[in-house]
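Assess this one:

_____
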Amino acid sequence: MADIFHEILKKYWGYDSFRPLQEDIIKSVAQGNDTLALMPTGGGKSITFQVPAMAKPGLCLVITPLIALMKDQVENLRKRDIKAYAIYSGMSMPEINLALDNSINDPEAKFLYCSPERLGTTMFIEKIKQMNINLLAVDESHCISQWGYDFRPSYLKIAEIRGILPDVPVLAVTATATPQVVLDIQDKLAFRKHNVFKKSFERKNLIYLVREVDDKYRHMLRIISHIPGTGIVYVRSRQKTKEISDFLNQNGISADYYNAGLTPEARDEKQNAWKNDTTRVIVATNAFGMGIDKPDVRFVIHIDPPDTLEAYFQEAGRAGRDEKQAFAIMLYHKSDKQQLAQRTVQTFPPIENIKHVYECLCYYYQLAEGEGKGRSFDLDLSQFISVHKLSKYIVHSSLKILQQCGYIEYSEDVNNPSRVLFTVERDDLYKYQSVNPNEDNIIKLILRTTSGIFTEYRPIDENDIARKLNCTRQTVYETMKKLAKDKIISYIPQNSLPQIYFTEERLPQKSLYIGPEHYLDRKKLYVEKINAVLGYATDFKCRVQQLLHYFGMTDVPMCGTCDVCTSRHQTDMLEFEFQNIKSLIGKQITSEPTRIDDLPDKIGKDQKKIGRVTRWLLDNCYLEEGHDGTLSLNPDKPLTEC
């Protein structure tokens, strides 16, 4: 059986061998075992469910909340002549029905990607019963845990799907999970037996640095000037993406900005220019990154600390995927602590505000009480905020909490291109072309450049068609509308608006329950995660040890390359020697008041080495020196932490 996995890997992906742990995970799944795979960003998670699914008859059902990633994987599979379909927010009912029917009736169909909110619909469940499912793959599986940083109640429906597919193994994959989340994923997915494969999160080629600076922009410029190659600068606000991009360009660094407020065309253009090295630095919000596979990123700089170490680890991990040296740098200022505290207030608005946003949302879509379940809507955020005179921060956070309570699904990363399906037989199409010469050129171009367009909706680009036919985009758009009116095609124009999907019917405001597990408990968890980020930025302890301890790896040696480790090199001694002298100093100071000059005689060690270790401990605030010269331990920074 193992040989067939290598044959599939070579035939479809062109690789001779698997990366570490991939083959072990694939074998576990092939043997019918429920399996949880923890692999860092860029570790090749998709291969672990795509290869075993290709080795067996039937279809792999893939659950993922990331629409951009879903589309990217479907297109990549199709480029390899593997039939794959997808269902996600923003698709019309005819599109959804066609994708489901093709998954049932097409014997060559191998993958159906689905967003989690679709799992609870009666139609989907009935269609699933008709499919020959060979594997259930759950991407971003940390979303099923209330202890995860992106909990989605719709993921809990997966356990119900397992009841319909009792003999189908599940493969859950994620790049970030704490030990508590690892256990919760397996329990919530009804694993028959706990079974975890965990690739070390350690990235030996990635150097982690934290710099506490007053002028972040100037320090960022200095870093970029000294590190060759391309990079990413992450910031919190859309406004700052352009501001910093302009600053870099003014200082001779080729840069561009990227955020969710840009048009899909602009985002694609900017992303491609950076991937092709036309642009050296992309300044972005966290909207940038998912599905970006650029192996030679040499640095990732965080101007603003993220909300969680999970997010930081994923974003920083986009550097150095080619396994050559790269840098992950966080710039920190004391004011960041207050800004992180403010984020808690913004992320958890008062409950009455959340209920008010829900009411406004229902009025906006003119939903009566008892209506709306299973319906999907575009959300023009600017218009919604303007009409109801709301704060954008309160709206965004309220929608997230309403999602976690299970009332709605809120999809922000929607970027749906225009889609077309020819709805007539070829003979009828030829007759239409012969008497409609104005539409003939567009029809011919679409047929020549787009495959499968008679059996499923396929994406088209009106701008590209206009360029090739030497006409305007508006002309193409009007022609497509005419073809649709003449019932030659089904045409769905481009849409990049966020999507709201009502998982429950509209409730009266008094019945809208926001329980402590979705508000108070998650607020407490959020504060804990922010404190972990602050600890990472301010604790003078090996950065890699801090990150890996957070993800449950306790027996981790110091990396020797982060800013903390290299500062110790200034003492010019081996690590065990440093630790030994540090321990003796701590014991001596604890036993009796001791001055710096008296330490060598008291300890009986080399005076110069004791002096260097003592000075390092003082410089890094592990020791304090009184007015009389005596030393004391800093109660806020235990020696055990260095």
